[in-house]
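Bug #77: duplicate submission created two jobs. Keeping one. Sequence:
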Amino acid sequence: MKGNINWDEYFMGVAELSSLRSKDPNTKVGACIVNSKNHIIGIGYNGMPYGCKDSEFPWDNQGEFLDTKYPYVVHAEANAILNSTSSLDGATIYVTLFPCNECCKLIIQSGIKNIIYKDNKYSGSKENIAGQKMLAAAGVNTIYKDILSIKEILS
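Kept job's structure:
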């Protein structure tokens, strides 16, 4: 590693590290919320709600709705918002994957004003388009950053 990492690399690294806590075999997502002083005020990853054991719920992404992860998993952004330690007004959220439309609603309602994301694998989907429309209408900035992974930075 050469020199120090910048703030974007640092906070995306925290989001990436958080994603490794997820039990999802297909899509591990992490989020890190930062205030204007570059203090971390919330982190999260996609996982089951408190009290729901990971082993007792499905992680499949195909099949009958109730046999998939979709009705059960709490997304990384929602967990980061719920785990926040102070006001989110004007904050920035770093996410490893562009938020879904439902998480966009939560981000807007919480007062977060900037989303920095690493991947947008659902770009062009109806949910992605809806999310982007809402974020634009609410004045939330979305910024793609091609940030190296933790492993790449350390090698």
